[in-house]
Amino acid sequence: MPVLAADTTSEHARLAALVRQLDSLDRLAERGAVLPRLEGSRYHFDHARLREDLQRVRAGIQDYLTPPRAQPRDTVELSGDYRQSSPPSDQEAPQ
To answer: Cross-referenced Pfam families, in alphabetical order (predicted)?
Structure first.
């Protein structure tokens, strides 16, 4: 079955919409990064790592939409692990 120009246009439109959604997620992660952490919380969400992965996904889609000439692809994997342990506070240290 031949690929129609309309199919390509539709795919580009969907991918452009996905990039806009990634931009929205990135803004939310940026705002979340400046919120105070909960006291006594053992883990917290690593917003910076999420933003790095969002940027990598966004760049991959944009590279597809406007491919560079014969450039090698970045093969770095996404982190996917967004939970970090909080260091114990002075109060929790054994005495």
So the answer is: Plasmid_RAQPRD (PF09686)
